[in-house]
Amino acid sequence: MLKKVDKHNGIPAYIQIINMIKAEIIKGEFQPGSQLPPVRKLQDVFDVNINTVLKALERLKNEGILEAEHGIGFFVSKKIPISVDVMKKIKECVKKLKETHIDLQTILVLFEEVWKNEN
């Protein structure tokens, strides 16, 4: 669910927007090929400057997650780089991690360290 950006959590607003849109795509709320709400509507939902929304959408476009049609809007790419198999593996991993009772922030730090140091 798209919601207001938290302006006090230290994470840049455009990054929060990117993460929210990615989460909605992964959860299936935005299907491949579907159009995102208009930029002005997203501006209202996120409660940020329109340039912040555009920055986030452009980043998602550059990552291949969104496609843009000039004068029409942004669409979820039909070639999303996250496969169903990858999501299945992530869910299995999360389930096992929850069983360890390690808090989310620690797990994120661990993932980041492994990500940086794995070849």
From TrEMBL:
Keywords carried by this UniProt record: DNA-binding, Transcription, Transcription regulation
Q: Which residues form the HTH gntR-type domain?
A: 11-79
Residue runs in coiled coils: none
- Superkingdom of the source? Bacteria
The signal peptide here is: none
Q: Does the keyword Nucleotidyltransferase apply?
A: no
> What's the protein here called?
Winged helix-turn-helix transcriptional regulator
What organism is this sequence from? Answer: Thermosipho ferrireducens
